[in-house]
């Protein structure tokens, strides 16, 4: 692996990863924290707030009352969501007492932040929330009809306002310095690009730097920015649709096979800080693809899953568990197995709650 990694897990700064059972590893996840709220809702309420079936809208001022109502509704399902926050919670579940996992993001100063903070602590994750007093905590409300149709309302709020200077605060700086692995969700390319660029340029030589592609629109509309970051990335995650979107944005062609897309992206030049990039491509129930170095792409079979509830957070779970395993084992097959296991468990529950 990169970062001056020596034989048997020794790194250039003298730290040995995954060899001493008593050693604690440190992972830092950075992203937009969102309080996810799911609740059944009658048709009258949906009409009152102008909501349509199978639609997702950005919230307006009149939705604040709705957010409060469903937040306090005892029948609502609440979750500390957002891509990186999901991954952090799964990483801690995978590591257990062997590792410390922290999550950094920005929130408001409100009841939503208080609930998410308590949830992270309960899951064993260190909450590094930068609280912005003039903004509200990010939310995503999912209103379910009796027929199972969804109406979604999203409010990014403070979650989209995380800045590079927040990395230098007394709250977050120590965790940046001691982390063996840093993961940033790709959505930051859209609203907080300086944060990703800062990690890409200034992370320590002994640290693993990882990002996700996050969404098709990120890949299509922000291809140039991604092309500046990917050369400095050690572990890159994306699903098949995202990988195809980025490859088509790079070469201005469509109708590429997934293998061609993976090869095109994996051949992006790497910086001197990266010895051999790992590219993990999820494809739902189809075999997962891993590209590393100049070797042939590896594929890993996904066993059929019974009792599927929903796929929310499966990609996040895979990334979190993969990194948690890889930072200790430095073994790709072991990390993939851990990632698939975590994603399978999340498929069988509502949302992205770690198993207990």
Can you characterise this structure?
This protein has 356 residues and is α/β, with parallel strands linked by helices. 36% of the residues lie in helices and 22% in strands. The protein has 13 helices and 14 strands. The strands form 2 sheets. A 9-stranded mixed sheet has the order 6-5-1-9-10-11-12-13-14, sandwiched between helices. Strand 5, helix 4 and strand 6 form a beta-alpha-beta unit. The N terminus is likely disordered.
In a nutshell, what does this entry contain?
The chain has 13 helices and 14 strands.
What structural class should be given to the helix and strand makeup?
alpha/beta
**3D shape:** globular
N-to-C series of helices and strands = EEHEHEHEHEEEHEHHEHHEHHEEEHH
Rounded to an integer, what's the Rg over CA atoms?
20 Å
How are strands sequenced across the largest beta sheet?
6-5-1-9-10-11-12-13-14
Question: Which whole number gives the mean pLDDT?
Answer: 91
Low-confidence stretches: 1-16
What portion of residues is helical?
25-40%
Question: How many helices in DSSP terms?
Answer: 13
Q: Largest beta sheet, briefly?
A: 9 strands, mixed
> How many angstroms separate the termini?
32 Å
The total of beta strands comes to 14
Cofactor: Mg(2+)
Domain Carbohydrate kinase PfkB: 49-353
Function: ATP dependent phosphorylation of adenosine and other related nucleoside analogs to monophosphate derivatives.
Organism: Caerostris darwini
